[in-house]
Amino acid sequence: MEDKQTSAENTSADAENRQDILEQIEKTGAVISKGEGETLHCLTIIGQIEGHYILPSDQKSTKYEHIIPLLVSIEENPEIDGMLMVLNTMGGDVEAGLAIAEMVASMAKPSVSLVLGGGHSIGVPLAVSARRSFIVPSATMTIHPVRMSGTVVGVPQTYYYFERMQDRIVDFITAHSRVEEAEFRRLLLRPDEIATDVGSIIDGAEAARIGLIDEVGGLSDALNALRNMIRQKRE
Known about the structure:
It is built from 8 helices and 9 strands.
């Protein structure tokens, strides 16, 4: 009788734990995983990165006001050993995306990024912000100049603002990857790759070849790299 009661209690506890995990994923797009002696925090960056303006409810989005305090909690939590950041994003707000990328890059804890599907636009600095980056073979990354929506004032200062913003992004990407600045700017301003636009779309193999992403690989590769970084830090 006691065994049946204990089994029922364990089943109930497991169900509650699964429900808590599902609620955490729904609210923050993140989950904590324990295994092989390490506790890992998996953070997802999906859809469009939402900045200062709320996106329509029918669009998938990642809210930077949720991600930034979450990154602080990951860094400060002694029980979390490292972070896996999974990206499938179309880009979004430039300042919000760059803010998240700077936060990830400044973390002391080991971090690995994995690009699935796409790491487009401002998703590029996010992908390179981790200590080590991976991309699956079928994923793509879109590289293009900064865009602006809304009212644009036709004065030289507008061009200088665009130029400075673009330089900030290029400087961040080249500082956190092995891609040469000249090669990245060539891809950025390529006129014959994207219809009605300027820029380039590169796949996983090319992203790794030019040094934008460290390695072509999948989930197990990213997790193994993260666990190795954690073990090296402990030694």
